[in-house]
Amino acid sequence: ALEKLQRVTQSSTPVSKTPSLNSKGTPNAWVLQVGVFSDKTKADVLKKNLQSKGYRAFTRSVIRDKSSLKKESITRVMIGPEFEQVALTKIKTAVDRDFTVKSMVVKFEP
Q: 51, 59, 37, 50: which is closest to 96 by C-alpha?
């Protein structure tokens, strides 16, 4: 699976070695958001399954306002980050198929 990931993420066009910077001076980067869960345990299971297939998966938990009176914790499962958006676009179809998800490429927020 790792060899497959390496083949898929290799681009036939040259990739810039210097990432572009945003207005804050940090590198522009992308992640493939694979899932969002209110149950952190389920997020951790998906992360471990992705990692077992060779993907650089991680989770990030955030608190969001569900309503003006209630807040909830959610955990996002992501692959990456990558400086080139195309690297994640290339693996999206395989991830969606293999893990029965509808992932999306989003900007990485450090």
A: 50
